[in-house]
Amino acid sequence: MSSIINATAAEGPFWFAVHVKSRHEFKVQERLAKSGIEVFLPVVERLSKWKDRKKLVEFPMFNGYLFVHIHRAHGAMLTVLKTPGVARFIGLTPGDPEPVPDEQIESLKKVVENKEAIDPYPYLKEGNRVRIKRGALSGVEGLLVQKAGQHLLVLSVDLLQQGISLKIDSSEVEPI
Questions:
Q1: What are 2-37's pLDDT values in tens digits?
Q2: Under CATH, which architecture does the 2-113 domain have?
Q3: The model's pTM
């Protein structure tokens, strides 16, 4: 009996990340849902301002990506790939989609449902080279370091074997 359970678990369905054309997330979500595929597009609401008004607008949490819940079967994957606006599945090896753990999808769903103040956070690791995106220090490059729960940008002068650090908000930097 346990071998039947394990075989079923290995077949899925699984959540897969799908890369879509720029600004096509909502259209692709609609097309996939119409073809009977369970789709999850995490969104955040932001206040958009125009000259004459302000309005809460939904934006994809991860630009260019959404998630599909399908079996790892050729037919199911082909249906997704043939959907207009879909670019590819995401995986560590090109052409070999990697399932996203259910726990990560469930966590995202809970956060989106509760409408917490969500702010996309760049995926950065300590030691990454980063560049400041905006402000007076725009374009400054350095090494990201974490110290006492704060992010620091370390600038080094290799010839002098000296460096300086400054506190930064990680939302202000991008990986190089």
A1: 334 334 446 689 999 999 999 999 999 999 999 999
A2: 2-Layer Sandwich (3.30)
A3: 0.68
Distances (CA, A) of 153 to 28, 129, 132, 168, 172: 38, 9, 9, 6, 11
Contacts of 153 (CB under 8 A, 6+ apart): 130, 132, 140, 142, 143, 144, 145, 165, 166, 168, 173
Question: What is the 3-state composition of the chain as percent helix, strand, coil, each rounded to the nearest 5?
Answer: 25, 40, 40
pLDDT digits over 75-104, tens only? Answer: 999 999 999 999 999 998 888 999 999 999
Return the H-helix or E-strand segment holding 16.
strand 14-20
